Acyl-CoA N-acyltransferase
Amino acid sequence: MHALTLSTLAAALFASATFAHTDCKSVDASVIKHTGISTGVEEKHDGIRLYIAKPDNSSIRAKENPTSAIVYLTDVFGIELVENRLLADSFARAGYLTIAPDLFNNEHASGDINVPGFNTSAFLARHGPDVTDPIIASTINHLRTAYGIKKIGLTGYCFGGRYSFRFLGAGKGGDAGYAAHPSLLENGEIEAIKGPAAIGAAETDGMMSPARRSEIEALLAKGSAPWQVNLYSGTNHGFGVRANISDPEQLAGKEEAFLQAVRWFDRHLSRPDFILRPAVDEDRDACYTIHRVAMYDVVKATFGWDEEDQIARWNSEWDPSEFQIVVVDGRMIGSIDVVDRTNDILLSGIELEPAFQGRGIGSALIGKLQAKAAQRGVPLVLGVFEANPRARALYERLGFKEFHREGIKALMRWEPDVVKKG
Ligand SMILES: *[C@@H]1O[C@H](CO)[C@@H](O)[C@H](O)[C@H]1NC(C)=O
Ligand SMILES: *[C@@H]1O[C@H](CO)[C@@H](O)[C@H](O)[C@H]1NC(C)=O
Ligand SMILES: *[C@@H]1O[C@H](CO)[C@@H](O)[C@H](O)[C@H]1NC(C)=O
């Protein structure tokens, strides 16, 4: 009886869980414009000037990923510099709504900050994180509220590159970051990132020497977020925006760096296509491996991680009839454990490899279960540990409310509009 309802649920999930393929037509350098007239518009919001570049309404890529957008963080030349506007337009042609806020309150730099005669310390003192962070936070908020954007990519250049990292910190609102030749990036800012970060580095860069680049790579490697550092030969600091496009090597570097950013956002701002399949006995060890990476921190903070005990529990309690395997590109990347009970549906666990967390898979899986629960007219319940605020925040966003507490574990419930009594 139990097995029967479960396999019915599994079949329903299986049938409905093959989502439209993102089928992103891949982008090439033809979307990039280096010279000419910019095509975006300027608007003022919250006292901040915004340069806004929108995808053409026929953009297939934009239609396939309509809830992702890019915040473009300029170098010290600001949104006045036509190369910045043109590059923002290029992101729009690549399918992303792109907003570049004026980071400098109308007083962008007239020369590069490492050029003699420019009072760098005075400029930077006037435009530190205390005044720059709120401008970016307001822009992100505007994208979410006025445009219904759910996933934010930050692309930053020189001065702006540092802020791509800052906004990948916990609760800062960025979902993926890219920085070309970032200036003034601090170790603590790298250590604090919670999302995927990529860097396009210049061969010759006074703001990021080879030694500094190695340090940055080591810090990225120590963290848990996916990262990438690409180095472009023949390029100098600033090339992502202001390469000498008469020089073929610099031109190629600028174009490749742009495509690097677009591909990074394609990968991390859209939900990967996945399918579900029923688990079989042979999946047990692979599921444990994912359980270990997905839950290690939470379990360690809650009970302490005892490997032998974890394995023993897993082997005695793991029941393939409750599990579905989440598969991306033919590879297992997680599992979902669901028990269909008489009076409710218990979501006993969702465990995904860290690289696939925060990318919409969990929400999509829960959305399907909510639809199933609504169809049955029963609540969907789950438990979440205090040490897992990120999961809790997701459940709250999806409408779950705490109804009971067992010490360090909260039980949460989502109820459909119509609950069948009985
Ligand atoms: C796309 O935009 C053009 C011009 O802005 C407009 O004429 C056209 O009707 C739009 N098409 C759609 C499908 O919205
Ligand atoms: C640069 O600005 C700082 C602070 O505003 C000032 O103390 C300093 O004298 C200036 N330096 C030059 C070379 O003008
Ligand atoms: C740009 O590159 C071209 C071709 O290599 C070179 O002739 C020119 O001097 C460069 N311009 C600047 C400003 O460096």
Observations:
- The longest strand covers residues 227-236.
- Residues 244, 246-247 surround 2-acetamido-2-deoxy-beta-D-glucopyranose (ligand 3) (CB under 6 Å).
